[in-house]
Design brief:
12 strands; Rossmann fold; globular; 6-stranded parallel sheet; alpha/beta; 13 helices
Length: 320
């Protein structure tokens, strides 16, 4: 059986799809999985051993210059590549109008959410079969259920697994940074300013970690995050990383003794890599999209609301 998954973004949503692929591969012998994903996140599907072909798309970039001949050519090429394969099932687990367009490009029976389940009900125009999956479930469970319903098996008794065992051994050895033997990685970047943790808290955390001979390592992905990381480092002994791709970040996250981070996709990668730590949600609730670790993996504790550095430090002591 060959199936196509349409799950394009965001980073956390793409990570949330991995357990559904593990389930399907367990339930269906000789399953081949292809995946349509935003170009910036294509590393994540490539990490799963049961994903065969990846079709990167650039909807976020295309929108900015939709009438450009270059954009038109890229869209046409992507559509032709996706259309060239006959699938036994095409599953749109995104449930958005943009993902329904990509789903419609593909050849084969198309499965998606029904009007009560989709985030954007107008997406259902593209599907041959409409599946009901409660919107009250965590995003990971929604992905698992829509996939199992489309393919005809039950995921109820299958343990949650991201399928990333031995990932670091499978990644290309391109990371040349020299890092301390023990470190905590601080995933301070977020999609919105109201999701951020105060720099004072990061500085206090870094100072405490330095006393434990376990420095705080700070990655960054844009100018705002770059500047914040350097301000934290100026007031503590935190180490600011260079800008890195997802493969390199996965390697660094995997080597950390613990992870502290915000409502960000990189925290979901940390959970998928079975790292312990603390996820901080100042304004959002983690019940539906929060960090979720595998059953037998070290836990990541989700903190909501006003979270002090002392609360995080006390939790980190549990993992030390």
């Amino acid at each position: 059986m060959r199936i196509l998954i349409v799950k394009t973004s965001s980073l956390g949503d793409v990570v949330h799809m991995l357990p559904a692929i593990t389930d399907a591969a367990r339930a269906i012998p000789n399953l081949t999985v292809d995946w349509v994903v935003e170009e910036n996140f294509q590393a994540v599907p490539s990490w799963h051993p049961n994903v065969n072909q990846i079709f990167p798309v650039a909807i976020r970039r295309w929108r900015k210059c939709l009438l450009s001949p270059t954009t038109f050519k890229e869209i046409k090429n992507s559509r032709n590549q996706i259309r060239a394969i006959e699938y036994d099932a095409i599953i749109d687990s995104q449930g958005l109008f943009k993902s329904s367009i990509l789903t419609h490009w593909a050849n084969g029976p198309r499965f998606g959410y029904d009007k009560n389940s989709a985030r954007e009900p107008m997406s259902r125009w593209a599907y041959d079969q409409h599946l009901n999956v409660s919107r009250e479930l965590h995003a990971i469970e929604r992905n698992r259920q829509i996939t199992s319903k489309a393919l005809g098996y039950s995921s109820a008794e299958l343990a949650l697994s991201y399928g990333l065992d031995n990932l670091i051994e499978r990644l290309p050895a391109t990371l040349e940074l020299k890092l301390p033997e023990n470190y905590v990685i601080g995933l301070h970047g977020t999609s919105r300013p109201d999701k951020e943790w105060a720099e004072k808290n990061w500085t206090e955390l870094s100072t405490w970690l330095d006393q434990q001979a376990t420095p705080l390592i700070l990655p960054w992905g844009n100018q705002r995050e770059h500047d914040r990381a350097h301000r934290i480092a100026e007031n503590s002994n935190a180490v600011v990383l260079p800008k890195l791709d997802l493969n390199s970040l996965a390697q660094i996250i995997s080597g950390a003794s613990a992870v502290v981070g915000m409502d960000t996709g990189l925290m979901h990668i940390a959970a998928a890599l079975a790292k312990p730590g603390v996820a901080i949600y100042p304004v959002t609730q983690p019940a539906l999209t929060g960090v979720c670790s595998e059953t037998q993996a070290p836990a990541i504790t989700n903190f909501e609301g006003l979270v002090s550095s002392e609360m995080v430090i006390e939790q980190l002591k549990v993992y030390s």
